[in-house]
Amino acid sequence: MAGKSPEMTLKAIGVVRRSFREPSSERLNLGEIASEIEIDPSLTEALDGLEDFSHIIVLYWMHRANSERLSLKVHPMGRKDAPVQGIFAVRTPNRPNRIGKTTVRLLERRGNILRVQGLDALDGSPVLDIKPYLPGYDSKDNARVPSWIIN
Amino acid sequence: MAGKSPEMTLKAIGVVRRSFREPSSERLNLGEIASEIEIDPSLTEALDGLEDFSHIIVLYWMHRANSERLSLKVHPMGRKDAPVQGIFAVRTPNRPNRIGKTTVRLLERRGNILRVQGLDALDGSPVLDIKPYLPGYDSKDNARVPSWIIN
Question: What number is the ipTM of this complex?
Answer without folding.
Answer: 0.91
